[in-house]
Each structure stands twice: as structure tokens, then as C-alpha cells.
Structure prediction request, 106 residues.
Amino acid sequence: MIPDDLVNLPFAPDMAEALLAGRKTKTTRAEDFGEGRVCMVRGRYFRITRVWPTYLFVVRGAWYREEGFDSPDAFELRWRQLHRGHFSPDKLVFLHTLQEIDPDDL
Prediction:
């Protein structure tokens, strides 16, 4: 059964692996995908349990581990790869917390 609150939240292959392995619990996006919404990654479901606005420099410095990276520089490098070389520290972004859920709980 596909949940009504399913949202398309794409992940790069290595970030999907980090999420499935539990090394990634947060994702930063340019838009708010909504608390309570559900995304599916490789057949597993994750609920967005919290979303809050913050700045890119905050995510780089404070949340890089939860994003699945070993260092702030690694987070920034990936951001630049995904955003045509751009990394604006004062950019307003939305930090999403993800929690895996049982499909029976949908």
C-alpha cells in the first residue's frame, strides 16, 4: 500500500546506503518537505519527524555527521557537487530528520 503522505525525496546511491545503514539520519534540502511525510528509499519507508529552517553553515559545522559525512569539508564538497559548485554558507535551508518506520505502521 502506498501512503497518501508519500513524498519524492531522492538520494544519491551512497547517501541511500548511509541512510539504510543508519549512518545518515538527516537530510538538508532547499525546501521543506513537511513533518509527518513519508519517503521510500530502496523499498524501505522513512518518516520525516522534524523539519526546521537553518543556515547551510550551521549544517556544515554541526550536523555533518548526521548527514552521513566524516567531516564538514566532505559535506561541503558533496553540496557543491550537487549544486553546480555553489556553497553559500548563509543560504537558508531545511534540515529534515528521518526515522525508519515499519510498513505496517503506514
Residues 13-101 form a domain with the Sulfate adenylyltransferase fold (CATH 3.10.400.10).
